[in-house]
Amino acid sequence: MKLISFNVNGIRAAVGKGFIESMRAVDADIICLQETKATPQQVADALAGLGGYTIHAHSAEKAGYSGTAVLSRQKPERVDLGIGIAEHDTEGRVITATFADHIVVCAYVPNSGEGLKRLSYRQQWDKDLRQYLVKLAAGKRPVIFTGDLNVAHQPIDIARPKTNYNKTAGYTQAEIDGMSALMDAGFTDTFRHRHPDEVKYSWWSFRMNARARNVGWRIDYVLVSRGFEKKVKEAFILNEIMGSDHCPVGVTW
User: Fold this and answer.
1) 171 included as an active-site residue
2) Which domain holds residue 166?
3) The total number of structural domains that make up the chain
4) The domain spanning residue 176 has which CATH number?
5) Is 157 marked active-site?
6) Is the pTM of this model over 0.85?
7) Which listed residue (80, 126, 148, 220) is catalytic?
8) Could you report the per-residue pLDDT of 59-96, keeping only the tens digit for each?
9) DSSP letters of the chain?
């Protein structure tokens, strides 16, 4: 099985930049998308040319904002939108697909914002999402949690750690602690598990030619519940795929 996760920064824009062709080449069994910026119908219409997948999407109440989707060759047994907390579920940020052998949770975690104005909300989000994931993982099926988690967890995950620490959304101690708490609760970062010393990023600012200079952040992840990391054959970051300010990340098992 192959799963990939990709913050597309607008699914309709991404399709115009080669998304369909890239996904055909990647040939994944499950594709998780974040920041679709579209309604479920708009997502389905944009992906009409892909074929071979069932599509489930979750959109924000605010038009053209946030949004997630799960595409899968195998139809899920059930799909749940949100995490059951009204405060968090208006922005289309979480979609959970339950399959026979595993559960996939696709998330677009809130950015703490310019001036860290949403940091306190982000901390509550991290706590509530962690409780949701831990409860899922208490069942019999392994949980694969993936998406744009909007945090660089360690200095190796960000090109300019000293410049950004506690100043920039995505690299504050509060956000780092939120990620650490999730891992302490039984989840494994598959890329860092398989590649403990590799420097590779999944997001680059549009400013200052950052991608060409590889001044980036690793903020897109595939985490798995306790024990499933042993079944993961590979974890990867597909830097060569363009069309967004992010690139896809993924695993095979």
Assistant:
1) no
2) 2-252
3) 1
4) 3.60.10.10
5) no
6) yes
7) 148
8) 999 999 999 999 999 999 999 999 999 999 999 999 99
9) -EEEEEE-SSHHHHHTTTHHHHHHHH--SEEEEE---S-HHHHHHHTTTT-S-EEEEE--SSTTS--EEEEESSPPSEEEES-S-TTTTTS--EEEEE-SS-EEEEEEPPP--GGGTTHHHHHHHHHHHHHHHHHHHTSSS-EEEEEE-----SGGGBS-HHHHTTTSTT-SHHHHHHHHHHHHTTEEEHHHHH-TT----SEE-SGGGHHHHT-EE--EEEEEETTGGGT--EEEE-TT--SSSB--EEEE-
